[in-house]
Amino acid sequence: MTDAPGRGPYAKSAARRSEIITTATAVFGTHGYRGGSLRQIAKQLDLGLTTVMHHFPTKVSLLAAVLSQEDAADTDFLDRSARDGFIPTVLAIVERNIGRRELVRMFTVVQAEATHADHEAHAWLQERYASVIPDYRDAIEHDRSLGRLATTRDATMLADLVIGTWEGIQVRWLADGTDPVDGMRVALEALLEPIRR
Amino acid sequence: MTDAPGRGPYAKSAARRSEIITTATAVFGTHGYRGGSLRQIAKQLDLGLTTVMHHFPTKVSLLAAVLSQEDAADTDFLDRSARDGFIPTVLAIVERNIGRRELVRMFTVVQAEATHADHEAHAWLQERYASVIPDYRDAIEHDRSLGRLATTRDATMLADLVIGTWEGIQVRWLADGTDPVDGMRVALEALLEPIRR
User: Fold this and answer.
1) Shortest CA distance to B110 belongs to which of B96, B98, B120?
2) Could you give the CA distance from residue A14 to residue B156 in angstroms, rounded to a whole number?
3) Does B172 contact chain A (CB < 8 Å)?
4) Where are the domains of chain B?
5) Average pLDDT over residues A130-149
6) What is residue B197's DSSP assignment?
7) DSSP helix/strand/coil, B3
8) Chain A environment of B97 (Cβ under 8 Å)
9) Which part of the chain is the HTH tetR-type domain (chains A, B) (predicted)?
């Protein structure tokens, strides 16, 4: 983001905020949330710690901003799935994620830490499952009612498995670049049995 | 492990070593490898840092010991799979993992961090994929040749997907206790199409 002259202090503040979030994404993705620090983030940006703390007074407030980037991207999932079908919609997100590797890595590392009940992002992780799984279940049931999918398996179980498989495949891609779209397509077809027309 | 009297200094040293590995597993599973420290591990055990460093002079030498616990458990995979079938053998390990939650958590957290090419465990992660995937591929092909599996999908792709799915399902189980055996059974049946006899 370029900081055009004349955009005023608000625009400048928003640009600074966004740059802190980007750096925090990389730091949490490398050291984990627990291993990362505001000091480290300030240092990488060549900023004073007080400047960072002006925008994010605590590390946990910065974590919330970092994690909400991920969620904002997929708000229209159900509409897209109703239009294009569940499998193409998921594959489009897997493909888009290839271009946001450090965001996916941060998400993977923080999620692993956050499985601990006393982790700062544990409630976020629980809420995420509680919102994504019913959406995926509904999208799968909708596709089935339209005759797009032949599977007779329980839709909540399928939603669980799609999420689990996706996350596991992304770890592998982060580690050695194995194509996640190919793997995800094969897994989705095996689980959901699309009907070709 | 109890430290029976008369077992001598070697047994005592082995017990101490094993207790350090167990504590390091919990610390790395909570803070990640990068966020954990020998000092923290020593403190939790109420030991001096020099005692810990007598057994593990560097944090990375302790990481190697922690990670090798995981590998040691599955050395007879191919024999078991040839005897009992691939699906039952994988499900037995998923089930056994339920009793080693902190080991699985450590493995999940360190693996996520280790996707970074400059992480201390990155080479370990690459070697793990390089040894597990061909074993799983061979086990799947063997089952197919015996008429146990109907799938015609590429066996290397299937091996990749079994590992990815398994790891994703375990994250969910770590986070909220969702039964990993049930999910894994459904995923394996969808991917591998077992032939019932």
Assistant:
1) B120
2) 47
3) yes
4) 8-65, 73-192
5) 96
6) -
7) coil
8) none
9) 14-74
- Pair A161, B186: CB distance under 8 Å: yes
Q: Please report where in the chains the tokens 């460093």 appear, as a residue.
A: B53
Q: Which residue has the tokens 């193409």?
A: A88
How deeply is B184 buried, as exposed, middle or buried, from its count of CB atoms within 10 A (0-12, 13-18, 19+)?
Answer: buried
Which amino acid is located at B5 in the chain?
P
Structure-token pair, residue A144: 């089935």
Task: Please give the Cα distance from B87 to B89 (Å, whole number).
Answer: 5
Give me the amino acid identity at B196: R
Q: Which residues, including other chains, have CB under 8 Å from residue B10's CB and lie 6 or more apart? A: none
Q: CB contact, 8 Å: A108 with chain B?
A: yes
Are A139 and A156 in contact by the 8 Å Cβ rule? The answer is no
How confident is the model over B21-51, as pLDDT tens digits?
999 999 998 888 888 899 999 999 999 999 9
Type of residue numbered B75: T
Kindly provide the b/e burial profile for residues B87-98, where b requires at least 16 CB atoms within 10 angstroms of the residue's own CB. bebbbeebeebe
Residue by residue, DSSP assigns A68-93 as HHHHHTTTTHHHHHHHH-HHHHHHHH
Best A107, A115, A119 member to test B by mutation, with max B CBs in 10 Å, is A115
Structural fold of domain B8-65: Arc Repressor Mutant, subunit A (1.10.10)
Residue range B73-192 forms a domain whose CATH class is mainly alpha
